[in-house]
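User: For a reading group we're discussing how well predicted structures match intuition. Take SDR family NAD(P)-dependent oxidoreductase. Before you show the prediction, I'll give you the sequence so everyone sees exactly what went in.
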Amino acid sequence: MSKTFLITGVSTGLGRAIARRALAAGHRVAGTVRTEQHAAAFRALDPDRARAFVLDLSEADRIEPTVRAAEAELGPIEVLVANAGYGLEGTFEESSMADLRRQFEVNVFGTVATVKAVLPGMRERRGGHIFVITSMGGHTTFPGLAFYEGSKHALEGITDTLAQEVTQFGVRVTAVAPGAFKTDWAGRSLVRVPRSVADYDALFDPIRTRRQALAGQGIGDPDRAGDAILTLLDAEKPPVHVLLGSDALRLVTAGRRRVQDDFDAWEKLSRSTDSTEGGVTVA
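Assistant: Thanks. Here is the predicted 3D structure of SDR family NAD(P)-dependent oxidoreductase, as structure tokens, for the group to look at:
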């Protein structure tokens, strides 16, 4: 059955690919873009079923009116793909508080505001599917991406909690964590903080050089990511968390193993902090 999608960030990359796949499957798609030029290009994909809206997620007061405008043109939003965001690369010490605030303003606050704009309607209609595009960096970490990965870890936690709250209303929620795809994430969509502390040169300079060289060369195929979203949409019991890409599977598995190794090695200490008088557990 044809559904109405809202996909944020459809100018390029995964958002664009997901939108193309949804349109090809017969769905209606409202997409957000950053410029009027991108809006025209998106509408040209399918003049009948594609609508474009210029929106910057950092402008929180424009998010709900944009959602209402999309619904006025295409009908109630049945599927949200909260994809828009950007990357920030820089060591923790060299990145500023302004960098951190901007990263969370777009990746976290803008995404959450978009979800909040569509959720009441889905709850009232007792149905809908919310996809939040996070990152393998929402499950594991790499040097030079502390603020970006912090934003994606935040989205994973928020999404997981939301899923537990709204499943009773027939609203499905899935956090989608891609690995490296053939997109411009490491190019145009990655803000690089200027270097200033020489002590990090040996660690970080090779990492930055490698990321620059591999921009757009990831193993993941954006069109196949679009197909994956449609598969999840049709699933009887879709997951709350899913990884896209063999690199994401490998790196997240290794990262979670490191965390579990710490838990296991210090299990005795963890247990030692329980009260000797007993008490009530959380669950």
